[in-house]
Amino acid sequence: MGNGAVDPMSLARDLGLFLTPWLPYLQKAGEKAAEEAGKQVGGAAWEHAKLVWSRLRHKVEAKPDVKDALQNVANVPADERAQTALHLQMRKLLADDPELAHDLAALLDQARQSGYMVFAGQQAVIVHGSVYGLAVGDIASTSAAASGEQTHRPFMAPPLPPQGVLGRDDDVARVFDLLRLDDAAAMDVAPVALHGMGGIGKTTLAAALGRLEVVPTLFPDGVLWSSVGPRPTVRFLLEAWGKALGVDLVPERDETACRDRLRGALYHRRMLIIVDDVWEVTHGQYFMVAGPRCRTLLTTRESPIAHTLATREKTLRIEVLNAEASLALLRRLAPEVVSTDERVALRLCERLEFLPLALTLAGRFLASETDVPTRMQRLVGELIDRRDARLRLLQAEGRPGIDEDHPVSLQAILGLSVERLSSIDQDRFAMLATFGGEPLTWEINAAASVWECSTVDAEATVSGFIQRGLVERRGERYWMHALLADYAAEMMDARGL
Ligand SMILES: Nc1ncnc2c1ncn2[C@@H]1O[C@H](COP(=O)(O)OP(=O)(O)OP(=O)(O)O)[C@@H](O)[C@H]1O
Ligand SMILES: [Mg+2]
Question: Quick one: which of 87, 187, 283, 448 has the fewest CB in 10 Å?
Answer without folding.
Answer: 187
